[in-house]
Protein 1
Amino acid sequence: MDNLDYGIVGNCRSAALISKTGSVDWCCLPEFDSSSVFAKLLDDKIGGSFEIRVAKEYTIKQRYKKSTAVLITRFSDGENTFEIHDFMPRYYNENGGYHAPPELARHVRHIKGKPKFRVHYNPKLEYALGETKTYVKKNFVVSLTQTEKFDTIFLYTSFNKNAVVEGRELEIKQNGYFLVGYNEKILLPSTRKIYLDLERTKVYWLNWTNRTPTYNKYNKQIMRSAITLKLLSYDRTGAVLAAATTSLPETIGEVRNWDYRFCWIRDASMVIKVMADLGHKNVARRYLQFIIDLIPDKDEKLQIMYGINKEKTLTEKTLDHLSGYKDSKPVRVGNAAYEQKQNDIYGILMDVIHAQLAKFSTGIENGEELWGITKGIVWIVSRHWKEPDKGIWELRTEDRHFTFSKVLCWVAIDRAVRVARILKKNRKLEQWTQLEQEIKNDIHENAWSDEVNAFTQSYGSTHLDASVLLMESYGFIHAKSPKFVSTVRAIEKELSNDGLLYRYKNKDDFGLPSSSFTICTFWFINSLFKIGEEEKAVALFEKTLTYGNHLGLFSEDIDFKTKRLLGNFPQAYSHLAMIECAVNFSRKNTEERILESMRE
């Protein structure tokens, strides 16, 4: 596959990526950040996959069941047709919780004729380290490894188990199923039971999407992106993952390969704000609890990222036996960036806390803890905002006074002031308001460059950076301010490449980036829209949408030349920014219609 032509299915516990030909090429069980069971995505030869193989006469089409996370792959040669409905079960159970077991179900639906196919079932446990052996038992197929450590996976199916494992041809005469599970089942599955799980899972997603507002423009894209963000949330703790994969390269053949199966405070907080705006307050409530649980000591500084089960140490190592996506080594698990200092995370977190308190101030849970966190954040920011840091892009070289970090330090204090007003804690206001003004003055004085007529990447620099576009959306500067308008123009001139944006152009730890960071393009589109260039913004938005894959999913990066998707996938950052653009366009449209009707 030349592009990341994958669909994602999941149940807020784990996820699987399924190619447009119906092959499971990435799946980690029992959880998102567990070792892989199938990792063909990272090594064509030894990674392991679960493929559905048909004769070349068959055409294959793929779509999502509308408003759900059920992926349907249809195989047809004209006379003979069948479908695979892939899903990870998720639905309410009798005790009020969710049934979300660590398993992938593949419901095989007979449509017409006598379709034939073969299975290539080749699990490779523990990231394909060592040997995985597969045995056919009476009720299931079991695969196990004990080279690195002992691990097992179970396959249940309505088809002949020996024929499945041996890759012999199978004929579909009626509906059937495959179920890959981390645990041995106590009650044996059946086609009827898998179908029931499928219907219950559909109902879960239909109920969930029903709580998302409908928009008059781009509703389909907003809904698919919202479902994707939900799929990247981890129910058990409230964590939100940056992406479902590790080590998909930002540029083919280079070494910018990172593990994104963790919860970055920045990415997650931005996701939560968007999800809460779409009406999904439970996701926000769980995430705030995740944060509260992480900060037991009042003077404990936040890490930029944590494991999805609140792990604080995320040791990075390389898996040298895997060749990497399109031979892009190294494959990394863990992420050393957890040790970095990035001052912007306090503002981003305070923005979420304020948004939730502003919306639900009377019924918010944990108000006292959130006020405690607010005071703690102000204490930390007041002592550290003048220090350099690694910045939003996690440069692994020297620290700098990044403009984005400074703006977000201002946001931290600005939102803390607002929270104090909501909670009527007035004794802090004067001191905090003075600090807010001091930071604001410092940014205007040091981040602006007369030479390039723009706010720049860092103090004293003439380099431009797409992240400064967020100054406006965080309320630091008005969209029609001449300084902001000229910053947008300068960024367009310097960082835009055929409508796609560089994050920055100055060399970093690995040289000049050769792919566009998807979120930056959406930030730019939003900024164009805000400064009044609405037609241009919408045209660029619609062009960018065409770079998504066949299911409308986006990764972290887009190659400038080929427009292929690169980087980890699907990327929460990209989808949240796409939603923000689409909602802004749609709201403007709605406001115009209301004004029209009032004039009539």
Protein 2
Amino acid sequence: MPGFIPWPEPWAERYRRAGHWRGDTFGGLLRALAGRFGGRTALVDGERRWSYRDLDQKADRLAAGFARLGLGPRDAVVVQLPNTAEFFAVIFALFRLGALPVFALPAHRSLEIRYFCEFTRAKAYVIPGAATGFDYRGLASGIRDTVSSVEHVIVAGESPGASGGVIALDDLLDEPHDQFVSSAGPTGGDVAFFQLSGGSTGVPKLIPRTHDDYILSLRGSVEICGLDDTSVYLAVLPVAHNFPLSSPGTLGTLLAGGTVVLAPRPSPDEAFPLIERERVTITAVVPPLALVWLEAAATLRHDLSSLRVLQVGGAKFGPEAAARVKPTLGCQLQQVFGMAEGLVNYTRLDDPDDIVIHTQGRPISPDDEILVVDDDDREVPAGAVGHLLTRGPYTIRGYYDSPEHNARAFTPDGFYRTGDLVRLTPLGYLVVEGRAKDQINRGGDKVAAEEVENHILAHPAVRDVAVVAMPDAFLGERTCAFVIARGAAPKGVEITRFLRDRGLAAYKIPDRVEFVDAFPETGVGKVSKKTLRAAIAAKSRGGAPS
């Protein structure tokens, strides 16, 4: 596949011999699961309950419907759906067809969606219906008018016969189809889908994940997290995100024969009743949401006794908050640290509290290779803080069609530069100390400073800008834009409105705008973002920078 960097054959053969890669595909796995679990509940979406057999049949019918539209193997399809059962019918249909879902998030707007469609030459774009509170149809209309490759806009959650130049997803289910099989694969080594990086420069890079490597990650996660056919997973985070998709997430739960319960929103007043009603055993949240749940548990009276595991990931979870999970919620905390590019680390369910509270876990696979190095790529002494590099059977060897970026993001021998600063404990657990990349982790949403800076620089009243992280007790980090105006400074609200009008996702718009006359500089004349971060941290505390 052009633009995809595969594992070198000696490494691929090693992973096959070790049993990591077994040649399975997602379409084939669903077929086997439907045969094994049949009428057992796979998905709960509100009052709707789909069995494994239902999901398998809907995937077959949708695959046939997509094929009638002219979609085929290796055709990219941007999928932007919320936490609904249709998300799974769509992606398994595309897997079965050999087409390639591009997992957009509900928060993405025109700037990101246009890029995904253009870069992948997507032939179709799948959106939610009108009940979401945002005009995805209007967004899709603009995309179709400006991206020539997009031939079809497909709307989920609307009645058949949709108008306005779009196709209702249900219209593609109008004919029964028995066991759809694509005439051209796919195979286990083929790319299954594209995820999105949280990169530090520009719009997200595309991460090609193969059936083999992702299914390996799922199998390992299911084993580590103790899932089986009695497990009930509550999906409260956006299901297209890597964490709730695969760690072990929704796909891991299905692989184990369990039940996935879909929450439309993550607030405790919606999630807690679902935990009680569906007897949820495991769920996953980001640190800011964990803090909200911990506070709500003291006032909302719901039976959470079925909950065995609360996973927290997406950003570092402070030890003080981590120590509150077991006494407050009555369940085991599991810290998860990973990335859509591959490597995933877990604290184990039988680890002592000290490890669970103070580390971010250890890797899934014994063949995950970890290096902690200094700025010159020399390994640091044991226990010292350094840059995390990794290589392994489910960590990509390169972003899709991005040779220049790959030259910086990967070493010549295939190690991925994660951009994380970590230290390694004597027992092989990682403790995350921060980020080396110019990236802001806003409650689990990654914001590339350079991308936001480039958009702000397009404002006619802006001469220069530097975007940095500022500490926040709730989200961990928020964004602050330091702006040097050209002439009279505009109001901060004008900057944010300008970014919103450019189609930037809401979570990327700076939380605060500060106007300054000049930027502090390093000894070599570069903008000192370290000084700016210290300044805004001190200002937010009401003090002066040290």
Protein 3
Amino acid sequence: MVTTLDKVDVVTVGVGWTGGIIAAEATKAGLTVMGLERGKKRGTADYQHVHDELKYAVRYELMQDIAKETITFRNNKDQKALPMRQQGSFLLGDNLGGAGTHWNGQTWRFLPYDFEIKSMTEERYGKDKLQEDDGYTFEDWGITYDELEPYFNTFEKTAGISGEDNPLGGKRSESYPTPPMLKSRMLRMFEEAANNMELNPIMMPSANLSQQYENPDGETINACQYCAFCERFACEYDAKATPEITVIKTAQKSDNFTLRTHANVVEIITDEDDDTKVSGVKFVDTLTGEEFIQPAEIVALTSYIFNNYKLLAVSDIGEQYDPETGKGSLGRNYCYQIFGGATGFFEEQFNTFMGAGALGMALDDYNGDNFDHEDLDFLHGGNMAITQTGARPILSNPVKSGTASWGEEFKEESIKNYTRVLSVSGQGATSPHKDNYLSMDTEYKDAFNVPLVQLTYNFTDQDRARQKYLAERAGEILEEMGASHVDLSAELTDYNIVPYQSTHNTGGTTMGADPETSVVNNYLQHWDRDNLFVVGAGNFQHNSGYNPTATVGALAYRCADGIIKYAEDGGRLEEE
């Protein structure tokens, strides 16, 4: 038997950064909000003495249980897709806060070029540079950087981001709310080398705060302790901006917000009387197995990209992308990232075991279209950075190329190099391609008998060329820093679902100005259902050379504006 609950103004499917932002803003506007989170409730009190590398970094304490929910993967449509049986290439968050709990805190704004990549590339280089005949599917996002800038600013104020102006980034209306983090010795070496090469290094914008800060909602974020347990870990000091200590806490102060955990949404319900709208969602209580319907005036999908896509697909909302015909937008333009970096071995020692998730220096001279691509066989590039995130001993075993991967020599070299190795990495975009997409698996299902998402993905020729280019530039910087030996990262072959690479999955529910090539408009309102909003990195038409969180946060604030406008006036939202 299915129980129907009382109707609310807004229901969010997932309560992390995006769900928290929408809940906080909607409740401020007087709307009633139900936040459905399939994981458990958690908070700072759960993370005291969290410095357990084996539990959190190796055994993935904070991650999704893929025995219950996973994806299937193949490199191309002629292969059989098989389930991902262990966390590997990316780490899917779980419980209240989602991946926003265990992120590093690197908080970049995407470049103006990112939002208009198709039109800007064609204007500068001509249409042939887009390589559409080779299957590349670059699209503009239907919004410009200038239109999104106020929302970037709002997100940075909410999270208290510590940083400094980027001479190669988009224009800012205000400076970062807190100053940059401390500049360690290895960062100063990178800065000096970059300046010698006439590049433009800056301190990385960080959600690990340089000083205590009270955000506009009255939430306090503390100063970072540089303990080096950020990525894959929660923060025991409330010094890393996460949804639980910012937007979720703000929403929970309002009587208009209700949080329901252990609530796994399995379907979006289309209105029986009006197929241009949805009427709510169906969810299962993961503790009791009971089924519920949550009616709502507005539904916001605010979970991770795979789940946002999955709910649209199983609810038959939108047209599934077909790589053979190019028709359909749902599942289109899945993208990921590449890392073209280098490792430098030094004779001197560094305190590499200390740090923070976003303690680093970076430069954008090789990112976006900040360098000439006329004679290069790829578009875009990557942000080049050195980070001091903390070299933890279980997962840090640096040895020079050619060293055995086990035995006495490996052990000796690992111990020697543990504090003598510095890495510079170019975090690069990947290019959207017609053969990379999301679909639904026809064989495998999750614990709730819902089909799994099927990922069809491989690196493209552009990705391989971009990665090689960035690795060579990283090597040049390390040589200028004085490394006695430099190893470039291996060139890309086929993409594999292991080992870990980055949790920067994008696409599948893209935004744009054309329903033929996008799922939502620039308010993240679904083209086929006026009261359905979909927000997350799935909205990206392609990836960038940055971590996605700040852009996701900005889009969430844009979406919240759209939801509030819709609640007031209804109908199709138009760009102002």
Protein 4
Amino acid sequence: MPKTVFPTLSRRAFLAGTAAGASMITLHPFSARAAEGQVHLRIMETTDLHVHVFPYDYYSDRPVDTVGLSRTASIIGDIRAEATNSMLVDNGDFLQGNPMGDYIAYERGMKEGDMHPVITAMNTVGFDAGTIGNHEFNYGLDFLMKSAAGAEFPIVLANLATEKGAAPRDDTTLFKPYVILDRTVTDGAGASHDIKVGIIGFTPPQVMNWDSKHLQGNVEARDIVETARAYIPEMKEAGADIIIALSHSGIGAAKETDGMENASVPLASVDAVDAVMTGHSHLVFPSPTYADYAAVDVDKGTIHGKPAAMGGFWGSHLGVIDLMLEREAGEWRVVSTASEARPISKRNEDRSVTALVEDDPAVLDSVRQQHEETLAYVRRAVGKTSAPLHSYFALVADDPSVQIVSIAQKWYIEQMMEGTEYEGLPILSAAAPFKAGGRGGPEYYTDVPAGDVAIKNVADLYLYPNTARAVKVNGQQLKDWLERSAGMFNQVEVGKADQVLLNTEFPSYNFDVIDGVTYQIDLSQPSKYGPKGEPLNPDANRIVDLAYDGQPVTPDMEFIIATNNYRASGGGSFPGAMGDTIIFEAPDTNRDVIVRYIVEQGTINPSADANWSFAPLENTSVLFETGPKARDYMSDVKGVTIEDAGDGADGFAQFRIML
């Protein structure tokens, strides 16, 4: 590979430009203070781009300021200019994750010689190297290899082999395990030096489970840290002066265990690794998120004393590691480091977003045609629904908009459990309505008529970019999960008419309906839990006649519940979902799961199956409010009889249920 000379900015030129008012850029202290024989090398990272080139949410079909490589790219020039020497790497998960990726994979396809738009954009930005994330395999190996072929930068991956040898160094790897880049750097005195930068890449070995249909029989994965220990000495033997690990793996436990998904902490402890670029978790490092992690120093931005960075996701941040290198006895060594993550936007106290950067026009222009084609794709039908998808009655009866989310989640987790120790356990699915009026107003409801379903309709069904999770619970936890959900309702007095049904302090996204079991809710009982999950009445039993497959659920029965990362990790304080029952962390968002399900089914049948209802209470009625358009669907609601009770307040309509 030809030797590359880094773009440089001398201190004299920088200071002269600043004096002339030509620049507001501040030179990094490493560059400003570097002496003869000292070199400041800045390494910049993008990670988990997931095809987000344009600052656009294709699901909601609107521009946004929080995502996009076009935004991240616009700050790279300034960040480069702060350092005498710099390079740019990508940490994986660039090929899948939004409708542009699906459009290319499912609609346009990739032939030999075709350019994938995200690769085109990355070439425009000018990356030095990249690695492969777990999502690169979602569309199959043929699609991946044809897409990666267009990259004008080396792509490395050490722990995935097409032919596995006796040890990692004997493997035939899918991509080159590492690359050594010849670079010319400038020291503090303006002198040039040659340096060899080694880049090695890793992906979670769990890809063999997550994409088994594409990978089984074609490739084999190795443990990340085991692979690093095998190849790092070889890289040093090949002349690497410094080694940067591109770890598409999160920051997790410090204790090394075989086959770790989030292995960046033990990876950083491997001898001769000088810096670790992390990702996969869609988080930011350095940040307070990791304040209590063993071997992690948030203030210094280090893991086991090695500099590390994680640049968010979808282009939200640029990870930056600064190395002060010094030449001694013919070898380069790291004498000082700094780490940070630069955001492209900020969230204000009122939850509004302020953009901190503008777009790079060249990046936008490079994929503008594919962006327009993607817009047409998301606005066009990708499937059909045999019944309307609406949420007008989602808080009072089994509901089609919640039903389809549950069906898709269950379909997905069933596939993920195949071949695992959990195969054969009953799989249930928990989902809650997101658009259900309330403070959003009388129009704030999902409303997709029967017929064509477009990808952008999925945003109506699932507002948040959550990722799928599975938890294992027992029968008692299952019942208490439903008791927690039943806090949505006020306690009613038997024999009394027109009592207010809904607790206005209870958010709709915490009203989980669990599909796969049948049950009733006895509103004459007090709620066992308060609006925030706090225990109120420990002996209360609102959930009655809870059954699975026609048989009563007993406390010792075991179930898997498909849900999302927010709920599974303790969001909403649900029994059985406090972070300690997670058995599967999916690499896919719930939105993607729904889209895939619709595409595969062609026509979906989201009709509610009325697996839950209110227990009968003699001579008792309740009132609730919902959107006026609910009147169009009154007769379709199963499991409960609903009467129109006239107009409600603030544009809402009022309805009555005879219990």
